[in-house]
Write a structure and sequence with these properties.
This protein is of the alpha+beta class. It has three domains: 19-97, no CATH class; 103-119 and 138-201, no CATH class; 229-294, no CATH class. It has helices at residues 47-56, 70-100, 103-106, 110-119, 129-132, 137-173, 183-195, 204-208, 210-233, 276-290; strands at residues 24-28, 31-37, 43-45, 236-243, 249-257, 260-268. The chain has a three-stranded antiparallel β-sheet. Strands 4-5-6 form a three-stranded antiparallel β-sheet. Helix 1 (47-56) crosses helix 2 and helix 4 packs antiparallel against helix 6. The chain is extended, with a radius of gyration of 32 Å. The two termini are 58 Å apart. The model is unreliable at 121-125 (pLDDT under 50). Residues 202-297 form the DUF659 domain.
């Protein structure tokens, strides 16, 4: 008797509680944009949101379903309205959060900034200025010194307030303090500073799927460059043993070359004796995986 096929086609319905999936399916499981109405058979782009508009007879983006009942229409209209209200509430919440961040107000530098504005001198001179202003280099130098002092005070206070926001996020999310020394975090701070106010953080979906896939691909490309270097110039294996917070004994293997040190693998060795033979077998297997001809003695 022939065995039944093990490969099953992917489902044409997303794993979601959205009411729109009661009336539609995906045309292609690999595309989340194109859907098909189960009532009238019409296919269109726009995902499940357009499906709800189609069933609810909402004009503007998609034609109305000729088969949907009044009950179906009201059900989808309610879902669309709730979605819009939820989106508006989220937007207002984000605006309120941004409104709370005022590093000038929080740091108490408003008075200093007003004084700094009063000290500022015009950057350009017109022909009439020679009759209404006097040249006094000593006074100008004193004003400049005072202006620089106020600049430094404002910068110091604002820096402290930004650090408070950063530390508060670390405390609330239980992120280890040593993460602050991570180069990737410093790059993120620099990019955020260059972007300016109004930056929108990535969603959980973006972190789980597209951004993670992009970072995985970037890591593979960097690893490929290192592997090509190992092939040309050779490399060395490095071992490192340590205990984590649960007192598990962890052994790491890294590959070192001119391009830098690359993590290779780790192993929980809590139940193993760290004998010379054990360490030799672990390293020997890694040498085989990399290629013995690439290892430099």
């Amino acid at each position: 008797m022939d065995n039944p096929p093990t490969d099953t086609p992917p489902p044409l319905k997303r794993n979601s509680n959205d009411v729109g999936w009661e009336y539609g399916v995906l045309c292609d499981a690999r595309s989340l944009d194109k859907v098909k109405c189960k009532l009238c058979g019409k296919e269109f782009s726009g995902g499940v949101f357009r499906m709800k508009e189609h069933i609810a007879h909402l004009k503007g983006n998609v034609s109305a379903c000729p088969v949907s009942s009044k009950e179906d229409q009201e059900k989808c209209k309610k879902a669309v309205l709730e979605g819009k209200n939820k989106k508006n509430l989220k937007r207002k919440h984000e605006e309120a959060l941004r409104a709370e961040v005022n590093i000038s107000k929080d740091s108490g530098t408003e008075e200093l900034e007003r004084e700094l504005g009063a000290l500022k001198t015009p950057h350009s001179q017109g022909p009439i200025d020679q009759y209404v202003s006097s040249i006094n280099p000593e006074a100008s130098l004193a004003a400049h010194t005072r202006q620089q002092s106020i600049h430094d005070a404002i910068s110091k206070e604002k820096t402290h307030v930004v650090r408070q926001y950063c530390s508060r996020w670390l405390y609330h999310t239980s992120i280890p303090f040593n993460a602050i020394d991570n180069d990737s975090f410093r790059l993120f701070c620099e990019a955020l500073g260059q972007f300016g106010p109004g930056w929108v953080p990535p969603s959980q979906y973006q972190l789980r799927e597209p951004l993670l896939i992009e970072e995985q691909q970037r890591t593979k490309e960097k690893l490929k460059i290192l592997e090509e270097e190992w092939e040309r110039e050779g490399c060395s294996l490095m071992t490192d043993a340590w205990s984590d917070m649960k007192r598990r004994s962890i052994m790491n293997l890294c590959v070192n070359s001119r391009g830098g040190t690359c993590f290779l693998s780790s192993k929980d060795t809590s139940k193993d004796s760290h004998t010379g033979e054990f360490i030799f077998n672990y390293i020997d297997q890694c040498i085989e995986d990399i290629g013995a001809d690439k290892i430099v003695q």
